[in-house]
Amino acid sequence: MQIKVTQSSKSEAERLRSLRLAALKDAPYAYGAVYEEDKEKPITFWQEWLAGSNWFFTSAAEGDIGLIGVEKAGADRGSDCWIFGWWIAPTYRGKGVAALMLAAIDKFCIENNWLRQGLGVWPENQRAINAYLKLGFIDGGKPIPSRSKPNQLYLPMYRNLSI
Fold first, then answer.
1. Buried b (16+ CB within 10 A) or exposed e, 132-157
2. Which of 80, 96, 140, 150 is least surrounded by Cβ atoms within 10 Å, i.e. has the fewest?
3. pTM greater than 0.85 (yes/no)
């Protein structure tokens, strides 16, 4: 199985849109966004999101199979960077793809001196929590209010990189 993780270019807004919509359609319970709303957003929305964040696309011989984003974290995050939008197509889950994606993110984070990674997960998404624990993230403790869904809490998780 040949898997490739590449950083997006600023001209790949349509690719980002396609992958993000696939993620929202596949796992609506896992994200703070809603497929029905995001599918109506103009291409300029996707271009701006691509320009303001660092996205990595994952592909196999048959095409795109995943995406993951990372950006410098705000002061309230308790980390140097924040990982978000992580998705892997169902047929590729449990096959080591997440570790390959995280390795690409790790390299990018080290290059930017972002050595404490953070991410958020809904507390009821036990499958994702287990996957993150397996990848070396630790439970950040008390759930905190979501920015995208203000009435919902998310569990922060953290991972330290060493160089």
1. beeeebeebeeeeeeeeeeeeebbbb
2. 150
3. yes
